[in-house]
Amino acid sequence: MSEEPLSLDVGAARALREAQALCYRHRVAIVTPEHLLAAAFAVLARSAAPGPEPAALEAAVIAVHGTGADPLDRDIVFGPGARECISLAARTARETGAATITAADLARATIRSGEVSPAFFAALGRSRQELLAALGGAPGN
């Protein structure tokens, strides 16, 4: 049995790039679920979708992961937690019959994965449930 290939829509692809850019700005070499979630919501905010402000998201990431002291001298890679979140988004898309993964799908999967540190939600001042509600009804709900 072959699975239909999935693709990332423009927003999801932008969210992955933004997660890496967030790491680069803060001199952190590994993309974590927190970087991925902040980036997905930042992309959604550009289209006027409800959710936390990008500055608040970035501040929450810094509260959890800090900022490195030295410039990066290597590539930024996706860590196992972030990869698990992306895999969950793909599994959910397949289960719901979707052909593409959106930035909102990445955000939902990241929240549901259990990979995001509770300290991130505390620093953001928003619960998992509040963030899921901001995303509205969608795949996997």
Provide structural commentary.
With 141 residues, the protein is mainly α. The chain has helices at residues 10-25, 33-46, 54-65, 80-96, 103-113, 118-124, 128-135; strands spanning 7-8, 30-31, 77-78, 100-101. It has a two-stranded parallel sheet. Strands 2-3 form a two-stranded parallel sheet. The radius of gyration is 14 Å and the shape is globular. The chain starts with 6 loop residues before the first strand and ends in a 6-residue tail after the last helix. The mean pLDDT is 90.
- In total, the number of strands is 4
Contiguous low-pLDDT stretches (5 residues minimum) are none
Whole-angstrom Rg: 14 Å
Q: What general form does the structure show?
A: globular
Strand/helix succession: EHEHHEHEHHH
Average per-residue pLDDT, rounded, comes to: 90
Tally of separate helices:
7
Helix content: 55-70%
Strands of the widest sheet, in order across it, are: 1-4
Please give the largest β-sheet.
2 strands, parallel
Percentage of residues in DSSP E strands: 5-15%
**SS class:** mainly alpha
Quote the distance from N terminus to C terminus.
27 Å
